[in-house]
Amino acid sequence: MKTTIQHIGNYKGEKVRIGGWIANKRSSGKIAFLQLRDGTGYIQGVIVKSEVDEKLFQTAKNLPQESAVYVEGTVQEDERSPSGYELQVSSLEVIHESTDYPITPKEHGTEFLMDHRHLWIRSKKQHAILRIRNEIINATYEFFRKEGFIKVDPPILTGSSAEGTTNLFHTKYFDEDAYLSQSGQLYMEAAAMAFNRVFSFGPTFRAEKSKTRRHLIEFWMIEPEMAFVDHNESLVIQEQYVTHVVQSVLEKCQLELKALGRNTSILEKIQAPFPRITYDKAVEMLQKEGHEITWGEDFGAPHETAIAEKFDKPVFITHYPLEIKAFYMKPDPDRENVALCADLIAPEGYGEIIGGSQRIDDLELMKQRYKEHNLSEEAYRWYLELRQYGSVPHSGFGLGLERTVAWIAGVEHVRETIPFPRLLNRLYP
């Protein structure tokens, strides 16, 4: 029976055939142990010299790392194995014998590994991280489908910017200027006026010359927008969404979390509702701890970390000063110098994973914002018209996928949370 390692538990005591690669191996005089991977998981293949012919045993002992093989054998329970099973190998067919595989079971420098990212993603840790990423994506679709959202795909090439063009990649669109999108939000607002609850999931680009462990040049965003939803309702949806994602990973990625050495007791605490503090309170807390920050300044990574350390769940920081937030955020009617907005800060020093707000729905106020931010009425005319034809209260948010993967997986740097990261001075491979 041909199967995969992922489903091998369905064939206990039976003979199966698996295609895979040799991740590692060791042998004694009488037994060879092959660490097999097939993309769905890892399993140990045991070859007993007395039970197979001499040629097969010698072939298994001498196979180089990452050689491709077909193996046949009987599935047996093994409590010591992470998967709970091992394979008693009875035959082996070499598909391709690898030579001089560069990533050996020893320490390698980060730059070397990044140069060989196309091979590094085969390793156990990287494999686990990217499978967790996949589960977060699956859980995202599951949550929004259940909550009545539909997926809408905004353009990647745009003629304008959501938050200014200084940090965008410029290109020529025939005889016009165009930019790689830094957010699909404005287009998602248009979609919400047509479909009520929508979300997008796609790549976004920021031309910031940043080298921090939280930043990528190309990254993926989940951006929901919701008609007839105010700021507080949006916060409830955000915390329910993050809770669903974390609990899905806990349920379906136990082997991957174990491979990463992740402390899952921390993740088990992630249940809605999440604590909320105002920007005012956050500044007060930071000042009491000796941080140099004054009201009106945005928070940096050390500030976010210091705030998050006070909580064992993600924390919403709400009502930022209007002047440091985007032009489309709705002012608080009770205090017009702050916005109806929030950032969600992850625990353990992973920083902001969500930014969101209630959007301005008043036509005249939006016209005023255009003037204050020197926005081109010609380029943004369509966005203004959303307030002209049937405007309603609406809210939305954006979740950065890579930062969320880093937090849930317990990974230090976001470069390991995307298959082929685009970083400052790195466009290869």
UniProtKB/TrEMBL annotation:
Catalyzed reactions per annotation: tRNA(Asn) + L-asparagine + ATP = L-asparaginyl-tRNA(Asn) + AMP + diphosphate + H(+)
**Which PROSITE patterns does the record match to this protein?**
AA_TRNA_LIGASE_II
Question: Which portions of this protein are annotated as coiled-coil regions?
Answer: none
Q: What Pfam families does UniProt report for this protein, alphabetically?
A: tRNA-synt_2 (PF00152), tRNA_anti-codon (PF01336)
Q: Which EC class, in a word?
A: ligase
HAMAP family, per the entry: Asn_tRNA_synth
Q: What is its main location?
A: cytoplasm
Which SUPFAM superfamilies does this entry report, sorted A to Z?
Class II aaRS and biotin synthetases (SSF55681), Nucleic acid-binding proteins (SSF50249)
The listed locations are: Cytoplasm
Quote the protein name from its UniProt record. Answer: Asparagine--tRNA ligase
Q: Which family does it belong to?
A: Belongs to the class-II aminoacyl-tRNA synthetase family.
Organism in which the protein naturally occurs: Alteribacillus bidgolensis
- Subunit structure, as described in the record: Homodimer.
Q: Which InterPro entries match?
A: Aa-tRNA-synt_II, aa-tRNA-synth_II, aa-tRNA-synth_II/BPL/LPL, Asn-tRNA-ligase, Asp/Asn-tRNA-synth_IIb, NA-bd_OB-fold, NA-bd_OB_tRNA
Q: Which GO terms describe its biological process?
A: asparaginyl-tRNA aminoacylation
In this chain the Aminoacyl-transfer RNA synthetases class-II family profile domain maps to 130-429
Gene name of the record: asnS
EC code: 6.1.1.22
* Gene Ontology MF, one: transferase activity
UniProt KW keywords: Aminoacyl-tRNA synthetase, ATP-binding, Cytoplasm, Ligase, Nucleotide-binding, Protein biosynthesis
Q: Which GO terms describe its cellular component?
A: cytoplasm
